[in-house]
Amino acid sequence: MTAGGHARFCPGEEHGEIVFLTGSGLSARTGLGTFRGPDGLWAMEPETEQAMHAELLPGSLPMLWSVWGRMARIALDHGPTPGHRAIARLGAPVITQNIDGLHQAAGSEVVAELHGSALQAVCLGPECRWRATVVPGAGSRAEDHGVPAACPDCGEPTRPDVVLFDENLPADALELAVRLARRADLFVAVGTSGVVFPAAQLAPTAKAHGATTVLIDIDPPPDPALRAIFDHIIAEDAHEVLPDWERTLNQVGRSSFLDPF
Ligand SMILES: [Zn+2]
């Protein structure tokens, strides 16, 4: 299981507070793929990437609702991966770039959604506070079926609460993320490259506040910057590593888990 015969890093009792930072790699096996990769959504349907630019609002709303609705449905139908489930069972807070709601579906309670959520609709009206939960493919609202609608409070169009290109990250999620990074004893990046924002800022923040930093990536990029940011780089499948950690930390036998994936 370990490359080169070295013992793979595993958290111990000294890592009281574990904080995860997750990206699209963690949800890839749900069928969502990673957006940017060669098999990603944007490679298959280039026009959908177009719609991710904020300056195209509100004309892009039909495309946005249809794309995010479809993605959210795929994620919900598949459900959380073994990685999501292990993180939830560890009771660890999560900072995520994913908008698919799978950490919450797995049972994680503290989730900082840096890129928003495809399961929330918000109003385009800058002063309007209206928001609603979306139930893709199953709810009674137009948005649930990928169709744009008007805000019931003010009549402006509604949009998915996801961060588009050229938009700022939500301040409350970012604030929570920084707070979590500062208090972490162990900071673990999973399914995200680690060298771009926010990993490139959050992992060093955690490290500067005393955390051990770990990257789990089955194929880590050969970037020397990674070695400066992360104390340990585990080049293995997170869906094997995280359940192993969880079993070790919770000291239970393998036979008691019936993970369907
Ligand atoms: Zn409104």
From TrEMBL:
InterPro entries per record: DHS-like_NAD/FAD-binding_dom, NAD-dep_sirtuin_deacylases, Sirtuin, Sirtuin_cat_small_dom_sf, Ssirtuin_cat_dom
Listed EC numbers: 2.3.1.286
Domain Deacetylase sirtuin-type: from-to ranges: 1-255
Record keyword NAD present: yes
Gene3D superfamilies: SIR2/SIRT2 'Small Domain, TPP-binding domain
CDD domains according to UniProt: SIR2-fam
Matching SUPFAM superfamilies: DHS-like NAD/FAD-binding domain
Keyword Transcription applies: no
Pfam families named among the record's database cross-references: SIR2
Annotated binding of Zn(2+), by residue: 123, 128, 151, 154
Catalytic residues in the record: 115 (proton acceptor)
Keywords of the record: Metal-binding, NAD, Transferase, Zinc
Database matches in PANTHER family: NAD-DEPENDENT PROTEIN DEACYLASE SIRTUIN-5, MITOCHONDRIAL-RELATED
Protein name per UniProt: protein acetyllysine N-acetyltransferase
Organism: Brachybacterium tyrofermentans
